[in-house]
Structure formats: structure tokens, C-alpha cells
Amino acid sequence: SGYSRSSLLDGLNPQQLEAVEYRGQALLIIAGAGSGKTSVLTRRVASLLESREAWPSQILAITFTNKAAAEMRERVVALVGDHARGMWISTFHSACVRILRAEAERAGLSSTFSIYDSSDTRVTLKRIIKGLDADTLGFTPANVSAKISKLKNELADVDSYARNANMSDPQEVMFVEIFRQYTQRLRAASALDFDDLIGETVYLFRAFPRVAALYRRRFRHVLVDEYQDTNHAQYALVRELTRPVDAELADELEAQGLHVRNVQDSTGAIPGASLTVVGDSDQSIYAFRGADIRNISEFERDFPGAKVVLLEQNYRSTQNILSAANAVIGNNFDRKEKKLWTAGGDGEKIVGFTGYSGHDEAQFVADEIEALHQAGTDYRDIAVFYRTNAQTRALEEILVRAAVPYRVVGGTKFYERAEIKDAMAYLIAVANPDDELALRRILNTPKRGIGPATETQLGSFAADNGISYRQAMRDAAALGLGPKVTNAILQLARLLDEAALMLDPASPAGAASVSDVLTFLLEGSTLLSVLRSSRDPQDEARAENIEELVAQTKDFTRENPDAGLVDFLTQVSLVAAADDLDDASGTVSLMTLHTAKGLEYNAVFLTGVEEGLLPHQMSAHEPGGPAEERRLFYVGITRAKKRLYLSLAMTRAQFGDINVAMPSRYLQEIPADLIDWRQSPGMANSRGGTQSRALNARRDGYGKREQQGLPPAPKPKTEWANRVTAQVRDNGDLTLEPGDRIRHVDFGDGRVNQVTGEGTKRIAHVLFDSAGAKKLLIKIAPIEKL
Ligand code: ATP
Ligand code: MG
């Protein structure tokens, strides 16, 4: 072949090379951001294949997103050739779905089981909570689903939980009952939620050693990226997959015609698979989803004799960016010291910017993006990060106006749109006739005159007769409903049954494609034509979305000629936020800091670096909260290759209120000489003391208290707030009244329509002649009365 060992190992540093070539049972690669962890994992896979130590089918590599999986596959294929395509490179969830569908019967599942996303879970919980009147005890779909998810991530189920629950506490009793009903409903619907996918696979392996043995024999090399963000269930799964198979079971496999001789040792047993994990405890940002950093810190204890490789050279960022990252993360206590360095030179300084408002900050981002673009940076090499989705509003508004092409990664949520969920529910109901949730969703969509009472009645009829909801629909004539309603239900049941027949490979025309089935359902149900003939312009957009879905099913069939409806549904269920990326699109990427993990861009804008956003107010008082938020900040900084912008706003609109915002405590952790602070043009005529000086004055305000587990001291907060507002501008007691004309530094002239609030919080609602309607905090807005 044209692939040589040397090209595969080209350019690796000695530590990277060691990690690629190590051939022991367990390998831990622990290293800071941008040091080549993911690259090393990729090359290691390639090296195992190229040396013929492993067949592609013997590799299981786990990535954090489907997109990362696809990238890794392409890189390996580029290194060793097309035959490598058969590798399992996927997320934990995708790998588990594959295993569970293959072993469905043993796991007590239908192979066409549905996968419930968080909104499906919430709808189900809402019904249960309502039925139990549990809201009076403070239960909400949100708090219950969070608790259930946490338990499942620890591999607890309702029975194990109930055994240890304090059943004299009415809260506990109620929670157990909700959990039990939730479990039963999912079972009855042949549905698994996201957490179940991992947990059920672990249970399967534990309950059926022979099934486990099959997969242990098969996967000889298990590799996991971003290991710092695995939770307990995922850890347990990795352990199950990498255990040895004893001689007796190995013989049994051999007797079944599964060749195991090539993997048996001298005792006849199959040794555990080799395990490689890579991670960075400084980038652990999913504790709120149960990620457990101990999976890394205790790796050597769990896998005795494990080899540990440290990588310290960073290939991604300039020294200035790295120094900032090192300084920030150095404030987290209880961590292993590691210093990243780069041979790449200092590079440009970090640019800091303080805007007057979120709008002002967004304008700065847009202007800088244009400047970068003019100077030759592709839009696709630029990313804008934020802590919360709410921050996108101002950014999008300005980017649209500035004609900067952008996309919100993970924000379009195509598959979460109501009309798409409706159309998908038709497909789900065909694939999995037990899925009551899907059936109830489409029962009266489009409107067929079937009311909520009938919807519930069908459910009780099913329960009373021990039949499924779908069967109850087929038997609707027995319910004694009016003829119109009865007919509507029967017609829908028939439509779904006919669609199911189309999927049968034994049908005269052979199995129909996903798009044929979808088109058939859309026509039979009139879902699309109802939207098309509506006069509501929103319905027109909805119809277009459904047409886009049809187009996607066609693409899917073209790209996966052997795949069927269930494969399509699985793929849709498992798209994660970061899978939304499309490098070829030539647009700026907007995303949350969480989504940014593992990615890199030439220029990065980290916006909203303010107290309350970063660290987020929800986490500020939680144990470990500020440290985790600092890691999130660290992740954001280390995505930048060449240019890093840190921006904040003095005031931010939140929940319809305008609040004075304060610079994030993390900013003062960056050495002042690394940042070149620029201010808002709107502040140029104010006193304008430099940010870094003000920030330095605040040093040692927070860090120490945080280490002692104390919330931040309130005093420096007010002091700082006063300083900031004083520094910007103080209009004193400027009195504005409806009808007054004013001039704003950025927005030009406008007319005051209304004044609300009191004292320092007085807000002017202004209609600007060209900039439109704005709300301004009168005390500090850069305005004058005309
Ligand atoms: P993160 O912690 O953000 O996930 P990582 O440790 O996985 O980062 P990679 O994404 O693998 O790092 O690598 C960072 C960048 O450095 C990539 O652009 C990669 O191509 C490059 N890189 C890695 N190793 C080398 C090397 N030996 N020579 C040149 N470039 C390298
Ligand atoms: Mg990586």
C-alpha cells in the first residue's frame, strides 16, 4: 500500500510517539488542551490496524460527539486505507443503541424500541405528575427528570432506589411512585431514555455473561476520548467491555463456531481488551450530568499496571493564549499541576473589550469579525462562544444587520420543532406500534375532531383490556364514541398499519424507503396539505420544514442504501449539539461553551465574561461550582489558535430587566500584560480608567473564599459595581419624560416614549429614528437631552 509507517508517525513528539506505540493492557494519556490527545488516539488506532495487530472489527473507539466520530474515522481511513471503515467509532450512546438493537430480545426489548429525548421524558413525567397530583408536593417534570437522570447515571433503578429510600417521608414515597410509573410507561411503550441506553447495556452484560463474552471477544482495543467527562454508568460499561473471558466461556464461544483461538492466552481464557483513555481533568465540564472526574484520577488504581503518558507541548495556540489559560486554571486547587508550552511564539495579545450594553458588545464582535475577514481570515475559522443561549439574541441581531454569515451550532434544533416532531411521531408510531407517546401526539394532529377526553378514554380502554394504545385505536368502534370520531381514529390506525406493511421486505414492491413511507403518511394524514393551505404565514414555514425533512430522508437513503426506518430514527435521536457543525458552510460558528469542547478555531470570541454568566449565577453557590465554571472558561480560551477576544458588557438585559453587570472574577486571574483592553466607543468620552488597573485593584477578592467553600464576599461586588458605573458615566438625576428628544452616542437621535423604574434603575424606552426601539438605563446611558 502507499501508506507507510513513517507517514503515520510523522511529526509526533517523543511522548506522543510513546503513546501511539505502547502495547500494554491499559494506557492513560493525560494532558492539557491542544496537546494532541485526540490526534494521538486517532494515530494509535491507525497504527494498530496498519501493523495488523488488530482488524478494524476489533476496534471500539468512543468519542464525545457523532461528528468527532466521523472525523476520526475519516482520518484513520486516510492513514491506513478504506478497509478500516468497519471500525466501531462512535459515541457511547450510538454504540449502546447498536448493541441493544442487536440483543433486544434478550434485553426484553423490541428491536425497534423508541429513544426518548428530554422533551419526551418531560411530557411523560408531566402526565404522571398530573395523575398523582404530585405538583402539590413540589414535583415538576424538570426536577424529577434531573433526579431520575442522576440516579440512572449512577446505575440505580427504581427498585434499588426504593430499597434505600426513607419511606416514612411522603416526598420520598411520592418520588418513588413517579419513578416507578415512569419506568413502567417506558417499558410499555418499548422506549428507552438517553440514560437508559447506557444503563441497559450494562445490565445486559451483567445479566448475560455469554452476551458480554461475545463483545469482549470482539473488541480487543477499546479507546475513549474525553474520558474526564464519563459518568459512572459509562465507566461501568468500559469495565464490562474490557474484562477477561474465562476459559470455559471461551470454549463455549469456540463451540458456537466463533473463532476465539487467536485471542486466547495459554490458559485458554481471553484476556481483557486493551484500554486507552485520554482526558484532561481541567476540562471536566459535565459534573451536572453526572460526569465523575474520579474516573481519571483513579484510573491507575482501577487498572493496575496502567501506563501513564503526559503530553505537555501544545500545538494549537500561541503562547499568550496558553499563558492566560495556564494562569486561570492555576487558580483551581486540588489539581495536578501541568504546564503547557508551545513552540509557536507569543502571537498577538488577547483583546479585551467592555461594551456599554450587550448590544454594544455584539457590535464590537461583528466589527472585529469583519476586520478579521478583510484581513484574510475565513468566516469558518471564527467562532463566538457564550455561556447561555439567551445571549445569542443580541449577537444574532447585530450579525444579521452586519451581513456576517453565521450559524448557531446546536441552536437551530430542527428536530425539536413542533411540526418536525409531529411528522417524526408518525414515523415512530409506524416503527414502534407500542409507542403511546407518539400515538397520542398524532391522534389529533392535524385536527380530526378527536378531543383530549377521547385521548384519555382510549388509554383507559387499553389499560382495562390489557391491550396496547394502538390496539385500542383499532378497536375504537367498541368505545361507543360518535361515528365521526370513531371513523377518524379507525382511519388513522389503518393509515399506520398500511405504512407498516410498506416496510415489509416481503411486500410485492419490496421494502419501501423512509422517504416513501413519510410521503405516504403525510398524504394520508393531510399533515402537510393542511399547513400549506393555511393562511398563517408561520404555517408556510412549518410546511417548508416538513419538506426539508422529506429531503433529509431522501439524503439518508442515498447515503445509507441498506439502512431502514429504525436506522433513520436512531440517527435523528442521537444527533447532539456539536453534530450540527458544517465546516464547508463558510460561516462563523456561534455556540455555547459546553458545545465548544474538543474544537479549535483561528479566532475565538468569548463573550459575556461577567459575574452571573461566567461563573453562572446558578453555580456560584454550589460546592465546586465556581471551579467547574473556571474549567469551562479554560475550555473556551484553549479553543483559540491565534486570536482570542474576551468581551463583556456593563449592562445586560435579563428577564426583561436591565442589570448592571460586573466583570467576571476570572478576568483578574489573567496577567494584565497579556490583555490589550479596548473600550466601548460609547465610553470614550467618560473618564475611561483602564480595565486592567481596575481589575488588579480587585485581586484576591474571591479566590481564597472560594477555596474555603464560601460564597464570594458581597462587599467587593458592590464596590466594583459602583466603580464601574462611576467610571462609565453618570447622568446623575437627568430627568427624562415622554416626548423628550435625546441623542445616543451609538444609536443617534430618538424620542422617549416612556420612563419606568425608580432611582438609579430608571429606564427610558426610546424609539430611535434609525436604530429602532431600545431600553436604556438612564443613569449610565451615553445620552444627552436635546
Ligand atoms: P483538546 O484538549 O482540546 O481536546 P487535544 O489534546 O485533543 O485537545 P488535538 O485536537 O488532538 O488536541 O490537537 C490540537 C491541534 O494540534 C490539532 O490541530 C492537531 O492537528 C495539532 N497537533 C497535534 N499533535 C501535533 C504534532 N505532533 N505536530 C503538529 N501538530 C500537532
Ligand atoms: Mg481532543
UniProtKB/TrEMBL annotation:
It holds the Pfam family PcrA_UvrD_tudor. Keywords: ATP-binding, DNA-binding, Helicase, Hydrolase, Isomerase, Nucleotide-binding. ATP binds at residues 31-38. Residues 10-318 form the UvrD-like helicase ATP-binding domain. InterPro entries: DExx_box_DNA_helicase_dom_sf (IPR013986), DNA_helicase_UvrD-like_C (IPR014017), DNA_helicase_UvrD/REP (IPR000212), P-loop_NTPase (IPR027417), UvrD-like_ATP-bd (IPR014016). GO terms for cellular component: cytosol; DNA helicase complex. It catalyses: Couples ATP hydrolysis with the unwinding of duplex DNA by translocating in the 3'-5' direction; ATP + H2O = ADP + phosphate + H(+). The keyword DNA-binding applies. GO terms for biological process: recombinational repair. Gene3D superfamilies: 1.10.10.160, P-loop containing nucleotide triphosphate hydrolases, PCRA, domain 4. Residues 319-598 form the UvrD-like helicase C-terminal domain. Its EC number is 5.6.2.4. SUPFAM superfamilies: P-loop containing nucleoside triphosphate hydrolases (SSF52540). GO terms for molecular function: 3'-5' DNA helicase activity; ATP binding; ATP hydrolysis activity; DNA binding. Belongs to the helicase family. UvrD subfamily. This is DNA 3'-5' helicase. The lineage of its organism: Bacteria, Bacillati, Actinomycetota, Actinomycetes, Micrococcales.
